[in-house]
């Protein structure tokens, strides 16, 4: 029990972020903790002597009338100062609460609060390093902490107090060795957690009990026991609808009957029994995941072999395991062995992590991430680094400790997480993997996916992107400079300087330094040549970003050949000295240094290959282009190479899986009305493979309507700024009448940014929370969570938001599509693809551009209605859907819902009528 300290957990609600700019406290709450339990609390509204902004009222649900009779801060400040004395100040983000409170105390003439502090954001990130979000509302949900009204100071302070106690509990549950390792680095933290770690160490040393942990060179790791094979009674596939109904009513879920889902189940069942290959397109609302899991798992049980389920992203793998497979357990009343298998670089290299523990940390981010990893190693079963939620700076450290080689390290036998994953994949009932693993399996001597009896390819259309990504190469100037910077010079504290510790003679060190300087100089010379060539080309666009096809630049390869030669000479000349030093070393610290040298030399070897593919190879069936932002030269210089011939790779990858049994390709969007085989032909599938389409009942989309704004200007007839003004007006009018809950989908990041900036400048949506991809910080999932948190919110996104985003219910009521999602004709990838299609006698527009845009259109519409209870409006601002002959192809691609043409002036009236009728 932690009983040596008293804690005051504080939360404040304010009119804004800055006391200096006149913002004031409107509610203050303090929860006191003594003897490891909540002992007392204090809460009050505070009169700010100014109106509370509407978005703050929406956020906190605190209105002007709530605070009009409340005391002023100067009236309560002396009491607040007094009761906070002799306590450790705790807040969920002390940088805001403590700083704001100190500024307000100073404003009313009171002394500064002198105290130690604990930030529960920092503490929670350490104790729960695998939670997806550390916003109080999110972590409270994750840890089952009651939080009745988020953004109310009293409820937030109470939830923060419970979070603090949860952190205490988690800390005390850690192995003593872990806490000691944490304490060693805790003095670099931003809050006073060192004293808490020390107290726990003291307690544990007095009462230490052996815990069920492995240790690797003093690092505790969770010991994972082998999961026994389950024992099943005879399970048969439910043939009739009555049997399916009884099955779906079994357990706690009580799922409703869906005719389309039952038909999909039957189709998959027959295909697996007959070892056939089929394609299944299932609309949103069918219940696709359970429809393939039930028949495939029952088939696998009968065969005594695992089924393989492949999807696209890490997020979708985790969603399948944590959300969908538990439903299967509930329905079938069985437990299954589920294995998750990702690429080798997803897993931690424990030996490499141990090496970094022996070195001095480079920054706060590195220190903090090391501490997170230490805790995570005591709780992870998978060793999958994507489980960790680290800062951007911390991600650099995570990249250093990834497993990169199939070569086994003898002294980590038994605790190598990648090896664990391989063993589990050989003894499981469901093997969940991703498309990249399937593509990469062709390159392995021992096939990792060779034990299955059937394969489900979910999000099947994304197999194309997985195949492209395997051969995609990206040159980043910043990344190259970072790797070269690891070597330094003989007079800096980097690798070249540390050669002296390995007893490499001075003359050799000087020679190696000269070789490295040659690399840096030739690299800088080559980059200067590239940039001067770009700048010699006219740049008419007002955008700061430039994009050029590499073949159009006609670059002299002599500059790039010199860099490649210098790299190879340096690696060839340095390796023998490092290898020789390794043979004679006994001291572990020096062994760490040698291994660091070997690691960075391997990185340089990878860079040699990358350099060759980017600058020295030219292939007809690939697109290669350069991107640069004038605001950041040369730092923003990036070159991307992407293959256009990928069907053969997919065929090769699927060949061994076809020999094992049936294959089910499935997705929500696999066809377009004008070209049923658009996606399957890109996947390299034979036209003989049947494509089955499964649609939901007609009333599923009863709450949907599509509006075409018929008087939007034609972007080809007006300037971009005029078009953006009309787009901004349509968005503002829509948001004001619907009260937010709106996605705005763009095809261009540049247009998105300019539209958001214009809306912000007008202040017409100042009472709404605006989240914009590429502008608001955070990942796609984090933006989505933030969007869902506020009722008055708008999310602006580009193509990457059009897939895999599920916002059921009232969190989303409107989708605005700014332009039909055609690829830009200036996009280098599209230009190269169009060139190849033309050579083959095909029309690039009808054979590729149009069907691709229709698929994206379907995906954009698919964000709106996720269940039969949802209602929403799909608004298209691009008049081409009405004025061009191909417009009807877009409308035919989505469900049969009411389509209306309205003017920009009448959109408000139409939306009001729709909401009245639907409400």
Automatic annotation (TrEMBL):
<protein>
    <recommendedName>
        <fullName>3'-5' exonuclease DinG</fullName>
        <ecNumber>3.1.-.-</ecNumber>
    </recommendedName>
</protein>
<keyword id="KW-0378">Hydrolase</keyword>
<dbReference type="InterPro" id="IPR014013">
    <property type="entry name" value="Helic_SF1/SF2_ATP-bd_DinG/Rad3"/>
</dbReference>
<dbReference type="InterPro" id="IPR011545">
    <property type="entry name" value="DEAD/DEAH_box_helicase_dom"/>
</dbReference>
<dbReference type="Pfam" id="PF00270">
    <property type="entry name" value="DEAD"/>
</dbReference>
<comment type="similarity">
    <text>Belongs to the helicase family. DinG subfamily. Type 2 sub-subfamily.</text>
</comment>
<keyword id="KW-0347">Helicase</keyword>
<feature type="binding site">
    <location>
        <begin position="282"/>
        <end position="289"/>
    </location>
    <ligand>
        <name>ATP</name>
    </ligand>
</feature>
<dbReference type="InterPro" id="IPR036397">
    <property type="entry name" value="RNaseH_sf"/>
</dbReference>
<keyword id="KW-0540">Nuclease</keyword>
<dbReference type="InterPro" id="IPR006054">
    <property type="entry name" value="DnaQ"/>
</dbReference>
<dbReference type="InterPro" id="IPR006310">
    <property type="entry name" value="DinG"/>
</dbReference>
<feature type="domain" description="Helicase ATP-binding">
    <location>
        <begin position="247"/>
        <end position="522"/>
    </location>
</feature>
<dbReference type="Pfam" id="PF00929">
    <property type="entry name" value="RNase_T"/>
</dbReference>
<dbReference type="GO" id="GO:0004386">
    <property type="term" value="F:helicase activity"/>
</dbReference>
<feature type="short sequence motif" description="DEAH box">
    <location>
        <begin position="458"/>
        <end position="461"/>
    </location>
</feature>
<dbReference type="InterPro" id="IPR012337">
    <property type="entry name" value="RNaseH-like_sf"/>
</dbReference>
<keyword id="KW-0067">ATP-binding</keyword>
<dbReference type="InterPro" id="IPR006555">
    <property type="entry name" value="ATP-dep_Helicase_C"/>
</dbReference>
<dbReference type="InterPro" id="IPR027417">
    <property type="entry name" value="P-loop_NTPase"/>
</dbReference>
<dbReference type="InterPro" id="IPR013520">
    <property type="entry name" value="Ribonucl_H"/>
</dbReference>
<comment type="function">
    <text>3'-5' exonuclease.</text>
</comment>
<keyword id="KW-0547">Nucleotide-binding</keyword>
<keyword id="KW-0269">Exonuclease</keyword>
<dbReference type="InterPro" id="IPR014001">
    <property type="entry name" value="Helicase_ATP-bd"/>
</dbReference>
<dbReference type="Pfam" id="PF13307">
    <property type="entry name" value="Helicase_C_2"/>
</dbReference>
